[in-house]
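Field log, afternoon session.

UNIT: design team B
ACTIVITY: writing a sequence onto a fixed backbone
BACKBONE:
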């Protein structure tokens, strides 16, 4: 329990420094700054694998699955890469949301900050219940496997290309429940207009981002649970990937068209993880195989996007 408390305290410190010190004043995040912060978050996440090794090798963690320190590190890195790769799809959706609600670039970081905070809470709950389900009901892993294969199939077909958040069920019903204004007043989420407190487009975008993140978590949480059912490894790899999502958004959102083949990488990853879940009781792959498949899929998608010329 002490390890969990220290980890969560460190996350809160990181978030406080992010908003209260490094991004205290609203400004447009340029590609160079986003690249530096992406490198910082990735370095922190990979360096944390050393902490994982130390915790498991010294028996300082509850180890319900009986992992060795080396296996724990491999599972953590594999889970982190899965979450990071699936975040690419999330970046595209966030870009569409900001565009639809006309959120100025100068305020986008603040919206994403509070979006990440909410995502940590929701994912913690989903991980807790997901681990509990897999631990109690062995057959639930087959449900997760089929769901991931279905998601991969939908992604391959491109069913989610036409996404219009301003026409979504959430936005239409939010207008009935609470006053909404199209006016943006600095980075405020609510303003008082003619004596009525109304939500600004920043709050609406935040709410839609939170809800879409829950939908994305329905893919990413089962995918990581296919790698390990250790709750700390699942939670830490997931949260550290989410923390880097903001800087990654500002880094690659302007280059989404260049990464046109990355979706095929995500299809391969989701299909592989889904099949691994379905055959988990019959075939036991070494950890390095999963890590290799995920890494090669990502690198292959990036290289294909960079070197295959787009047809007119």
């Amino acid at each position: 329990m002490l390890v969990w408390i220290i980890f969560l305290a460190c996350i809160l410190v990181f978030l406080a420094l992010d908003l209260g010190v490094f991004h205290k004043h609203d400004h447009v995040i340029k590609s160079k700054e986003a690249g530096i912060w992406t490198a910082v978050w990735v370095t922190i996440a990979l360096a944390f694998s050393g902490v994982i090794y130390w915790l498991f090798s010294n028996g300082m963690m509850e180890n319900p699955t009986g992992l060795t320190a080396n296996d724990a590190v491999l599972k953590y890195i594999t889970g982190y890469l899965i979450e990071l790769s699936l975040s690419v799809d999330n970046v595209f959706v966030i870009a569409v949301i900001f565009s639809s609600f006309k959120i100025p670039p100068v305020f986008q970081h603040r919206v994403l900050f509070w979006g990440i905070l909410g995502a940590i809470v929701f994912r913690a709950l989903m991980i807790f219940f997901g681990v509990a389900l897999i631990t109690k009901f062995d057959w639930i892993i087959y449900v997760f496997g089929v769901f991931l294969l279905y998601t991969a199939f939908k992604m391959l077909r491109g069913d989610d290309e036409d996404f219009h958040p301003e026409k979504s069920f959430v936005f239409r019903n939010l207008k009935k429940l609470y006053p909404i204004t199209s006016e943006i007043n600095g980075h405020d989420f609510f303003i008082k207009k003619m004596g009525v407190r109304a939500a600004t487009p920043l709050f609406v975008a935040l709410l839609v981002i939170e809800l879409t993140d829950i939908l994305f978590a329905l893919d990413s949480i089962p995918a990581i649970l296919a790698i390990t059912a250790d709750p700390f490894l699942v939670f830490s790899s997931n949260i550290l990937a989410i923390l880097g999502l903001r800087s990654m958004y500002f880094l690659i959102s302007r280059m989404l068209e260049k990464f046109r083949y990355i979706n095929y990488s995500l299809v391969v990853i989701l299909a592989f993880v889904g099949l691994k879940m379905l055959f988990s009781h019959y075939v036991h792959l070494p950890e390095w195989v999963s890590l290799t498949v995920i890494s090669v899929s990502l690198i292959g998608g990036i290289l294909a996007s960079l070197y295959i010329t787009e047809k007119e």
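LOG NOTE: Residues 2-98+117-163+216-307 form one domain.
NEXT ACTIVITY: expression trials, pending approval
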